[in-house]
Amino acid sequence: MKVTKQNIKLFEHVNGVNVVTLKDGTRLKEKSLSSREKKEVTAFLQDRLIRIKPPKAKSDKPVRYTTLVRQCGQPVSSDTLTQAQYVTAVKENRVVCIHHDDGSNRGRNWAAVGHHIVNVLEHIVFPAPLPVDYNTRVYAADLFFSENL
Predict the structure, then answer these.
(1) In whole angstroms, how far apart are CA 123 and each of 114, 118, 140?
(2) What are phi and psi of 51, to 5 degrees?
(3) How far apart are CA 72 and CA 125, in angstroms?
(4) Which of 37, 55, 68, 97 reaches 20 to 30 Å from 43, CA-CA?
């Protein structure tokens, strides 16, 4: 069977060697291919890469508290959870810490994703994992206090 983009079933790296598997089951080492066949393999790989969507990158941009509530559900205070539940929430990236302003932020409190210790007013826990990385800033997190009065 000829090596064409349509006839290639699989391209894999086995024991340090690139192997092309054709649809009829024939396995060929990349070293044994001609330059035209290598171009067909490259076209096959490029075609596959276009069809496979890369995973969404997590953003380092700050996120609004209301966006997190919309995506992950209404949070609760960590005071209502047992220590084991809280540790599980930290591991699953469901915790936001509201920090007390130390004077450098014009008197406003701020929040960040993850478990922090210094100047923390409140740890809040969301029911679902947060779609942002650890230490990402959260805007308008003081809304948690106004909702739970």
Answers:
(1) 9, 12, 15
(2) -75, -30
(3) 10
(4) 55
